Amino acid sequence: MTRIFSGVKPTGHLTLGNYLGAMRRWVESDQHRADGLFCVVDLHALTVAHDPARVRRLSRQTATLLLAAGLAPELCTVFVQSHVDEHTRLSYLLECTASDGELRRMIQYKEKSALALRSGESVRLSLLTYPVLMAADILVYGTDEVPVGDDQAQHVELTRDLAVRFNQRYGHTFTVPKAVHPGVAARVMDLQDPTSKMGKSHDSGAGIVYLLDDPDQVRRKVMRAVTDSGTEVVHDRETSPGVANLLEILSACSGGNPEELAGVYESYGALKRDTADAVVELLRPVRERHAELAADPGYVDEVLRKGAERAGELARPRVDAAYAAVGL
Length: 328
Ligand code: ADP
Prior knowledge:
mainly alpha, EC 6.1.1.2, Tyrosyl-Transfer RNA Synthetase, 7% strand, binds adenosine-5'-diphosphate, Rossmann fold, 12 helices, ligase, 3-stranded parallel β-sheet
């Protein structure tokens, strides 16, 4: 059976971008057709300045939201990265496989290290080595497919290079995985700045719809979305990024393709109202289920405990084999 691994960082509250770009596919397709491992990658939240209590709170909320969105423990494995030691054990061996140069070339490293320096912080070494830990997250399970947004393509490419190099040096140990990018909603954009992606780690919440926003908050954010100077509803990411983003969100929520939907609307107001309604309806069951699960922390703990147990069992033999292969 195809094995799938994917993760979410607990660096902020989950957004509509995470849901449409990643989680929905895990829920509706991946967990049914494959052996899916879905992980809250908490170690990755430590690569930039962090508040321990916040990371702990967000890890739990993220795991609860994955279940609320519909990941079912009887179909897939949901767990927290730091509960399974094999990720960091393997990461060290992969650090001995990767080169300094190839990590410094990573676009996200360049962007995030520049950001840290600008705000007067030192750059944590883990920000540089983060893609190696991500490679370990993936390779440790013999993963075949990694469903991720376009922003992660370079990291999955590195993972493949490391797997091939390790296998060539020490004998076949790792499956070489491939990235699978979602066709629809591959990039949901910020409602206030439709040229940058709707990201949970961004500071301003005004252009970001969070999965736990109540219907009034969702409506307010969508109605205030930046549109373009024209008045005509067209789907064109270059000239009308704000309107194109709304059309794509509406299309992802309620079906229909963005070009056809553009023909249906004569004003931005009507498009915004329908988009807001569609997002509210999409998120309603997730919010309701989250409230039920949050009231039952024992259940979530048990799911995560069992998830980590299964993940550890899957990972251990491969990591042991890798240690033996390198001569330890
Ligand atoms: P973030 O960028 O929100 O910190 P993560 O790195 O935790 O997200 O990514 C979780 C998943 O959500 C990844 O597969 C990522 O590609 C996807 N994702 C994140 N933001 C968006 C977005 N705005 N549009 C589409 N997919 C997204």
